[in-house]
């Protein structure tokens, strides 16, 4: 499946003058989170995919989705960490249509992830395996953005999602869930932008110095 929209979108994002770039207020976001059965990005399996979209500094609560992935792989610590059991996964969706759903939802959006070094690389492996030409989406990594903010203040680099949410006074449920984590990650991005003094009239390029934009 070959798509041209990534190339078109990225050309808009990296236009030579800021007037040709979409402002932060005009950006369409999709926050994505995966629950995995291990942190070995070359061998792990996706247990669930969660995502939610937004525009500017608003979240579209009706856009949220959460899909359990049917499989027979070892769950390891997932029942304890994520609350996902074998019974849950037996009722889940096949991976190929789940990837297609994510593929369609992410069209022409800036991806938001907390620790893209894991989730993006796992998704890239799966998309390659199932022959989805996802290209290189523009990604904002809230972990890297928080690391930049903490370095500025010479504070300890506690950048796990829960620590970041606590620091930004964002409430989070007690149960790890891919949709819930995607939702609070997008909230975290908006809070980080505010901390940086960025308004909806600023541009994605105003974040380049933070090192938190991937594939820009």
Summary of the model, kept short:
The chain has 216 residues and is of the alpha/beta class. It has eight helices and six strands, in the order αβββαααβαβαααβ.
Features:
single chain, 216 residues, alpha/beta, Nucleotidyltransferase, domain 5, 6-stranded mixed β-sheet, 6 strands
What does the model show?
The protein is an alpha/beta fold. The protein has one domain (5-214): 2-Layer Sandwich (Nucleotidyltransferase, domain 5). 37% of the residues lie in helices and 18% in strands. It is built from eight helices and six strands. The protein has a six-stranded mixed sheet, sandwiched between helices. Strand 2 and strand 3 (58-68) form a beta hairpin. The longest helix has 18 residues, at 178-195.
Which sequence of strands runs across the widest sheet? 3-2-1-4-5-6
Percentage of helical residues?
25-40%
Question: What is the mean predicted local confidence, pLDDT?
Answer: 86
Name the CATH class. Alpha Beta
How is the CATH topology named?
Answer: Nucleotidyltransferase, domain 5
Shape: globular
Write the layout of secondary structure elements.
Layout: H1 5-13, E1 28-36, E2 46-55, E3 58-68, H2 78-81, H3 86-90, H4 95-105, E4 110-113, H5 116-129, E5 139-141, H6 142-152, H7 161-167, H8 178-195, E6 213-214
Parallel strand pairs: 1-4, 4-5
Antiparallel strand pairs: 1-2, 2-3, 5-6
């Amino acid at each position: 499946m070959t798509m041209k929209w990534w190339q078109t979108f990225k050309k808009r994002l990296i236009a030579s003058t800021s007037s040709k770039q979409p402002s932060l207020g005009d950006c369409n976001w999709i926050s994505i989170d995966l629950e995995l059965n291990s942190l070995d990005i070359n061998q792990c399996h996706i247990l669930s995919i969660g995502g939610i979209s937004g525009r500017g500094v608003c979240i579209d609560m009706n856009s949220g989705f959460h899909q359990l992935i049917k499989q027979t792989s070892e769950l390891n610590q997932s029942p304890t960490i994520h609350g996902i059991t074998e019974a849950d996964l037996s009722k889940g969706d096949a991976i190929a249509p789940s990837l297609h759903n994510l593929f369609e939802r992410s069209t022409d959006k800036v991806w938001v992830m907390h620790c893209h070094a894991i989730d993006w690389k796992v998704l890239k492996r799966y998309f390659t395996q199932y022959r989805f030409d996802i290209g290189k989406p523009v990604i904002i990594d809230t972990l890297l953005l928080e690391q930049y903010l903490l370095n500025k203040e010479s504070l300890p680099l506690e950048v796990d999602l829960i620590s970041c949410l606590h620091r930004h006074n964002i409430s989070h449920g007690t149960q790890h869930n891919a949709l819930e984590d995607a939702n609070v990650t997008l909230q975290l991005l908006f809070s980080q932008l505010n901390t940086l003094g960025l308004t909806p009239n600023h541009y994605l390029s105003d974040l380049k110095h933070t090192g938190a934009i991937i594939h820009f």
